[in-house]
Amino acid sequence: xxxxxxxxxxxxxxxxxxxxxxxxxxxxxxxxxxxxxxxxxxxxxxxxxxxxxxxxxxxxxxxxxxxxxxxxxxxxxxxxxxxxxxxxxxxxxxxxxxxxxxxxxx
Length: 106
Known about the structure:
Blueprint: H1 5-28, H2 33-57, H3 61-93, H4 98-101
Helix pairs in contact: 1-2, 2-3
């Protein structure tokens, strides 16, 4: 017995909303730059799930898969650059706490 399309939509929607809230909380409630990057990563995964769900519901799964692969490639490039920036900040200031970094002058 397979679930119909509306059940799949609601199950995935609830899961996507829950994961999205976790990602937003991870970004907004932390002062650690690494945790903020993890929150951004979670939100990008939420966007990936939304694209896959939209492709499944509209019967255009090939388009959705190609968009997701493109999103993954862009995401990897963004995360590498962000990780490099955080390493440079840590090398120069010996902290990744945004509260301490906001007080810097110059």
